[in-house]
Amino acid sequence: MRDVRDVTFAEDASTVHTGTAPRAMATLRNLAIGLLRTLGADNIAKTTRAICDQPERALPLLGITNNPGTEGT
């Protein structure tokens, strides 16, 4: 039997439900999904599980590195 997990982006579990916070969380979720699709991910749920298991893989997708001297590149 496969291990089945629900993938959420924490806006459902958030206690902030007023103002613009839900809209901001939805925007960030859509940005993440759009980025993954642009990079060629066919299965968004599988890709987000892989990134959750290895979060250090997410930052290079956004162009963020831990290399000194690469600011602005």
- End-to-end Cα distance: 45 Å
Average pLDDT score: 75
Number-wise, the strands total 0
Biggest sheet statistics: none
- What is the share of helical residues? 40-55%
Low-pLDDT runs of 5+ residues are none
Question: What's the gist of this structure?
Answer:
The protein has about 70 residues and is mostly helical.
Key structural traits:
single chain, 73 residues, mainly alpha, 3 helices, 44% helix, globular
Explained architecture:
The chain is mostly helical. 44% of the residues lie in helices and 0% in strands. The protein has 3 helices and no strands. It has helices at 21-38, 44-53, 58-61. The chain is globular, with a radius of gyration of 15 Å. The mean pLDDT is 75.
Topology (elements, then pairings):
Layout: H1 21-38, H2 44-53, H3 58-61
